[in-house]
Design a protein that fits this description.
With about 450 residues, this protein is mostly helical. It has 18 helices and no strands. Helix 6 packs parallel to helix 18, helix 7 (about 120-145) packs across helix 9 (about 205-225) and helix 8 (about 180-200) packs parallel to helix 18 (about 410-425).
């Protein structure tokens, strides 16, 4: 083998290793922030930032990061720096808050295309295997947190003296290894995509791994008590049915999935902890329904209400906005000394006031266009009999359109999930580059 080719393979291997470092930090950075060094909880919010920079440096060495391929991100970053500089000069914003905002909106996005151009079919298989392996211990952990009291060390929040959000029935919303409850919710939604794909393709993962992971994922849903997870699973069900109906080879997989899910649900409902979790979720659902209305009203409030709130702010927002990053907890702590939502909780009601009407709508429009592009790529992969990218869409698209990018966990799953989704769609049309012995272990 030529020396230059050997050097390239070594560089590519290190690129994949850095991508895996990003993944493991996404899963376990909460462990550092909650239990090991809570005094450094604030700085650890940025722990994946230098890893992203290392990925880009290594990707450049592997000719997978250049202005020719990354010019949209370069243009986006340049525009943000220009807007932020103007806001700073006019006294609208401060340098630290502006830099944090640009970091949230621009630094991690190129990783999506680096992953798509780097990861092979073997790498995606390994990622799915790790997600399945993590599902059982993660479910055991969230169950222990669910059963523990709010003051238990298992339910510590990020930072000294912090705690987790309460649910119904004196239970907390379990956070697993993450800082807060949104982490395991995003994780289980991503894992379900790999599980459904494996159920539709015989022999993807061994049974000893697949079925315990399926049971753990199903059992975790009521424990987490998240309506967002239920809505995402409903969307995944629609995507799964379309996937099965669009290809004869996957049609039998639909029957298998239905049977296995019914069996897993039947077994789970026999367990006391599962019944307790279902009861708690029903109580929380009823409490939320009294406050927010029925399912349709909840979706209208959380989706259309967020968009409408952002659009309504167009007429009242200054043209240059109130400052990039001003809607983040970092800005709130810097300016007021406490974490709170100064501009609003939803993404649309934060972006437009931060960026101003024109730049805010352009940025949100770009995110929606990319979500549409990802949808078309997933559909194209499905037509080529590669369903994984399609089945990951329900977990990824809501984050792209509505996810709060200034929240590090949302941002991490948005970027990593979109990278997996796009990589899965592309492997359907490109050959595998490395053998299993050369791929990242």
């Amino acid at each position: 083998m030529p020396k230059t080719n050997t050097k390239y393979q070594r560089r590519l291997l290190w690129l994949k290793r850095w991508i895996w470092v990003y993944f493991w930090l996404l899963i376990f950075e909460g462990v550092l922030r909650k239990w090991i060094v809570p005094s450094l909880s604030g700085p650890l919010l940025l722990v994946r930032d230098p890893v992203a920079v290392m990925i880009y440096i290594q990707a450049y060495r592997c000719q997978k990061f250049s202005i020719k391929t990354m010019w949209p991100f370069a243009l986006l970053t340049a525009g943000m720096f220009l807007l932020a500089s103007t806001q700073i000069v006019l006294g609208i914003n401060t340098i630290p808050i502006a830099l944090y905002g640009i970091r949230s909106y621009a630094l991690h996005l190129p990783l999506i295309f680096v992953m798509a151009d780097t990861l092979t079919r073997e790498d995606l298989h390994k990622c799915g295997r790790w997600l399945l392996l993590l599902s059982v211990p993660m479910t055991i952990l969230v169950l222990a947190q669910f059963r523990a009291g709010a003051g238990a060390w298992l339910n510590a929040g990020a930072g000294e003296g912090s705690s987790q959000i309460m649910s119904a029935g004196n239970h907390v919303r379990p956070a697993g290894t993450f800082s807060y409850d949104i982490g395991p919710q995003c994780l289980v939604m991503l894992t379900f995509g790999f599980i459904v794909d494996a159920l539709m393709r015989k022999g993807t993962y061994p049974r000893w791994l697949l079925y315990p992971a399926l049971f753990a994922a199903v059992a975790s849903v009521p424990i987490l008590g998240s309506r967002t997870v239920l809505f995402t699973m409903a969307a995944l069900g629609v995507f799964t049915v379309y996937s099965g109906m669009s290809h004869a080879a996957r049609l039998a997989g639909l029957v298998k999935i239905a049977a296995v899910l019914l069996l897993a649900g039947f077994i789970a409902i026999q367990l006391p902890f599962f019944r307790d979790a279902v009861g708690t979720m029903e109580d929380r659902w009823q409490q939320a329904s009294r406050a927010e209305g029925n399912v349709g009203e909840v979706l209208d409030e959380r989706v259309l209400g967020n968009v409408e709130g952002g659009l309504q702010s167009v007429g009242t927002t200054p043209w240059l906005g109130s400052g990039i990053g001003m809607g983040s907890n970092f800005a709130a702590v810097t300016m007021t000394g406490e974490a709170r939502f100064m501009l609003g909780e939803g993404e649309w009601v934060r972006i437009i006031p931060e960026f101003g009407p024109i730049c805010g709508l352009l940025f949100l429009g770009a995110r929606m266009c990319f979500a549409g592009y990802l949808f078309l790529m997933g559909l194209n992969g499905l037509r080529r009999n590669s369903a994984l990218g399609w089945l990951l869409l329900p977990a990824v698209i809501p984050l792209l359109v509505m996810g709060v990018m200034e929240q590090p966990t949302y941002l991490g799953f948005m970027v990593f999930g979109a990278g997996l989704c796009l990589a899965a769609a592309q492997v359907a049309i490109r050959p595998v580059v490395f053998t299993s012995s050369q791929a990242l272990s």
